[in-house]
Protein backbone atom coordinates (compact mmCIF):
# COMPACT_ATOMS: atom_id res chain seq x y z
CA UNK A 1 0.00 0.00 0.00
CA UNK A 2 1.49 3.32 -1.10
CA UNK A 3 0.17 6.62 0.23
CA UNK A 4 0.97 10.12 -0.96
CA UNK A 5 2.42 12.70 1.41
CA UNK A 6 -0.96 14.44 1.75
CA UNK A 7 -2.69 11.13 2.50
CA UNK A 8 -0.04 10.25 5.10
CA UNK A 9 -0.56 13.67 6.71
CA UNK A 10 -4.28 12.95 7.13
CA UNK A 11 -3.53 9.45 8.47
CA UNK A 12 -1.06 10.73 11.08
CA UNK A 13 -3.43 13.53 12.05
CA UNK A 14 -6.23 10.98 12.53
CA UNK A 15 -4.07 8.63 14.62
CA UNK A 16 -2.88 11.61 16.69
CA UNK A 17 -6.40 12.02 18.10
CA UNK A 18 -7.73 8.45 17.87
CA UNK A 19 -5.01 6.96 20.09
CA UNK A 20 -5.27 9.46 22.99
CA UNK A 21 -9.08 9.53 22.88
CA UNK A 22 -9.10 5.70 22.88
CA UNK A 23 -6.87 5.63 25.96
CA UNK A 24 -9.02 8.28 27.61
CA UNK A 25 -12.30 6.43 26.98
CA UNK A 26 -10.73 3.18 28.19
CA UNK A 27 -9.56 4.92 31.38
CA UNK A 28 -13.05 6.23 32.19
CA UNK A 29 -14.73 3.03 30.96
CA UNK A 30 -16.93 4.89 28.49
CA UNK A 31 -18.04 1.89 26.43
CA UNK A 32 -20.37 3.99 24.27
CA UNK A 33 -17.50 5.98 22.81
CA UNK A 34 -15.26 2.94 22.60
CA UNK A 35 -18.01 1.53 20.35
CA UNK A 36 -17.85 4.70 18.24
CA UNK A 37 -14.05 4.44 18.08
CA UNK A 38 -14.40 0.86 16.81
CA UNK A 39 -16.75 2.10 14.06
CA UNK A 40 -14.33 4.95 13.28
CA UNK A 41 -11.41 2.52 12.97
CA UNK A 42 -13.39 0.29 10.61
CA UNK A 43 -14.03 3.27 8.34
CA UNK A 44 -10.41 4.40 8.63
CA UNK A 45 -9.19 0.97 7.51
CA UNK A 46 -11.78 0.86 4.72
CA UNK A 47 -10.61 4.24 3.40
CA UNK A 48 -6.94 3.31 3.87
CA UNK A 49 -7.20 0.13 1.80
CA UNK A 50 -9.41 1.58 -0.95
CA UNK A 51 -8.04 5.11 -1.41
CA UNK A 52 -5.93 3.92 -4.35
CA UNK A 53 -9.22 3.15 -6.11
CA UNK A 54 -11.46 5.90 -4.77
CA UNK A 55 -8.87 8.68 -5.24
CA UNK A 56 -10.53 10.80 -2.58
CA UNK A 57 -9.49 14.44 -2.78
CA UNK A 58 -7.58 16.10 0.09
CA UNK A 59 -10.76 18.09 0.84
CA UNK A 60 -12.72 14.89 1.40
CA UNK A 61 -9.97 13.14 3.40
CA UNK A 62 -9.43 16.12 5.69
CA UNK A 63 -13.18 16.59 6.04
CA UNK A 64 -13.61 12.97 7.13
CA UNK A 65 -10.72 13.19 9.58
CA UNK A 66 -11.89 16.48 11.11
CA UNK A 67 -15.39 14.99 11.43
CA UNK A 68 -13.89 12.12 13.44
CA UNK A 69 -12.00 14.56 15.67
CA UNK A 70 -15.12 16.63 16.32
CA UNK A 71 -17.04 13.48 17.22
CA UNK A 72 -14.35 12.25 19.63
CA UNK A 73 -14.05 15.68 21.24
CA UNK A 74 -17.81 16.06 21.46
CA UNK A 75 -18.16 13.12 23.80
CA UNK A 76 -14.93 13.55 25.75
CA UNK A 77 -14.23 17.24 26.35
CA UNK A 78 -16.01 18.40 29.52
CA UNK A 79 -17.63 21.83 29.44
CA UNK A 80 -19.93 23.23 32.11
CA UNK A 81 -22.07 20.48 33.61
CA UNK A 82 -21.76 18.23 30.57
CA UNK A 83 -19.61 17.56 27.54
CA UNK A 84 -18.95 19.52 24.38
CA UNK A 85 -21.74 17.73 22.48
CA UNK A 86 -24.41 19.26 24.71
CA UNK A 87 -22.89 22.76 24.67
CA UNK A 88 -25.19 25.44 23.30
CA UNK A 89 -23.30 27.54 20.76
CA UNK A 90 -26.08 30.01 19.95
CA UNK A 91 -29.44 30.39 21.68
CA UNK A 92 -31.69 30.19 18.62
CA UNK A 93 -34.71 28.28 19.91
CA UNK A 94 -36.05 25.73 22.36
CA UNK A 95 -34.67 24.35 25.58
CA UNK A 96 -33.65 21.02 27.06
CA UNK A 97 -33.33 18.31 24.42
CA UNK A 98 -34.96 20.61 21.87
CA UNK A 99 -32.25 23.28 22.20
CA UNK A 100 -30.95 24.81 18.98
CA UNK A 101 -28.02 25.41 18.22
CA UNK A 102 -25.75 22.89 19.95
CA UNK A 103 -22.25 21.70 19.09
CA UNK A 104 -23.72 18.26 18.33
CA UNK A 105 -26.00 19.68 15.64
CA UNK A 106 -23.14 21.53 13.93
CA UNK A 107 -21.09 18.31 13.89
CA UNK A 108 -24.02 16.43 12.32
CA UNK A 109 -24.41 19.07 9.60
CA UNK A 110 -20.67 19.16 8.91
CA UNK A 111 -20.29 15.38 8.93
CA UNK A 112 -23.09 14.57 6.54
CA UNK A 113 -22.11 17.46 4.33
CA UNK A 114 -18.76 15.67 3.99
CA UNK A 115 -20.60 12.36 3.44
CA UNK A 116 -22.47 14.02 0.57
CA UNK A 117 -19.15 15.11 -0.99
CA UNK A 118 -18.00 11.48 -0.71
CA UNK A 119 -21.19 10.26 -2.40
CA UNK A 120 -20.81 12.78 -5.22
CA UNK A 121 -17.14 11.87 -5.71
CA UNK A 122 -17.99 8.18 -6.06
CA UNK A 123 -21.06 8.68 -8.24
CA UNK A 124 -19.85 11.40 -10.64
CA UNK A 125 -17.49 9.23 -12.76
CA UNK A 126 -20.32 6.75 -13.33
CA UNK A 127 -22.91 9.40 -14.18
CA UNK A 128 -23.89 9.46 -17.83
CA UNK A 129 -22.44 12.58 -19.52
CA UNK A 130 -25.84 13.40 -20.98
CA UNK A 131 -27.66 13.01 -17.64
CA UNK A 132 -28.70 15.99 -15.54
CA UNK A 133 -25.95 17.18 -13.19
CA UNK A 134 -28.62 18.74 -10.98
CA UNK A 135 -30.05 15.27 -10.48
CA UNK A 136 -26.55 14.07 -9.53
CA UNK A 137 -26.31 16.72 -6.80
CA UNK A 138 -29.78 15.79 -5.53
CA UNK A 139 -28.87 12.08 -5.56
CA UNK A 140 -25.64 12.79 -3.64
CA UNK A 141 -27.60 14.75 -1.02
CA UNK A 142 -30.08 11.89 -0.67
CA UNK A 143 -27.20 9.44 -0.17
CA UNK A 144 -25.81 11.79 2.49
CA UNK A 145 -29.18 11.81 4.25
CA UNK A 146 -29.35 8.02 4.02
CA UNK A 147 -25.92 7.73 5.63
CA UNK A 148 -27.21 10.07 8.33
CA UNK A 149 -30.02 7.61 9.01
CA UNK A 150 -27.48 4.78 9.30
CA UNK A 151 -25.62 6.91 11.84
CA UNK A 152 -28.81 7.11 13.92
CA UNK A 153 -29.09 3.31 13.76
CA UNK A 154 -25.51 3.06 15.07
CA UNK A 155 -26.50 5.38 17.94
CA UNK A 156 -29.62 3.26 18.56
CA UNK A 157 -27.44 0.14 18.81
CA UNK A 158 -25.38 1.97 21.44
CA UNK A 159 -28.55 2.84 23.38
CA UNK A 160 -29.82 -0.76 23.49
CA UNK A 161 -26.36 -2.23 24.14
CA UNK A 162 -24.92 -0.02 26.87
CA UNK A 163 -26.64 0.83 30.16
CA UNK A 164 -25.84 4.54 29.93
CA UNK A 165 -25.32 6.70 26.84
CA UNK A 166 -25.44 10.38 25.99
CA UNK A 167 -27.47 9.83 22.83
CA UNK A 168 -30.69 11.45 24.03
CA UNK A 169 -34.31 10.77 23.16
CA UNK A 170 -36.79 11.38 20.36
CA UNK A 171 -36.17 15.11 19.93
CA UNK A 172 -32.42 14.57 19.78
CA UNK A 173 -32.80 11.92 17.07
CA UNK A 174 -35.20 14.08 15.08
CA UNK A 175 -32.93 17.13 15.29
CA UNK A 176 -29.95 14.98 14.29
CA UNK A 177 -31.83 13.94 11.15
CA UNK A 178 -32.76 17.56 10.42
CA UNK A 179 -29.16 18.75 10.74
CA UNK A 180 -27.89 15.76 8.75
CA UNK A 181 -30.21 16.90 5.97
CA UNK A 182 -29.12 20.54 6.27
CA UNK A 183 -25.50 19.46 5.91
CA UNK A 184 -26.28 17.21 2.93
CA UNK A 185 -28.28 19.90 1.12
CA UNK A 186 -25.62 22.50 1.91
CA UNK A 187 -22.93 20.29 0.37
CA UNK A 188 -25.09 19.68 -2.71
CA UNK A 189 -25.54 23.45 -3.10
CA UNK A 190 -21.77 23.92 -2.69
CA UNK A 191 -21.17 21.39 -5.47
CA UNK A 192 -23.74 23.03 -7.73
CA UNK A 193 -22.19 26.49 -7.25
CA UNK A 194 -18.66 25.13 -7.63
CA UNK A 195 -19.65 23.49 -10.91
CA UNK A 196 -22.27 26.03 -11.98
CA UNK A 197 -21.51 25.47 -15.66
CA UNK A 198 -22.45 21.80 -15.25
CA UNK A 199 -25.90 22.00 -13.67
TrEMBL record:
Name of the protein this chain belongs to: DUF2238 domain-containing protein
Residues spanning the membrane: 7-27, 33-52, 59-79, 106-123, 135-162, 174-193
Pfam families xref list: DUF2238
Keyword vocabulary terms for this entry: Membrane, Transmembrane, Transmembrane helix
Highest rank taxon of the organism: Bacteria
Amino acid sequence: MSLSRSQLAVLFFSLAYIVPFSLYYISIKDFEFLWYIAVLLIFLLLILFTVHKTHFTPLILWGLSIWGLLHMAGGGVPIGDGVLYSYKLIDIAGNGEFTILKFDQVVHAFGFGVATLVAHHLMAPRWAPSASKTLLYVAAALVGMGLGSINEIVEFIAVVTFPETGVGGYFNTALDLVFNSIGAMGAALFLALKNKNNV
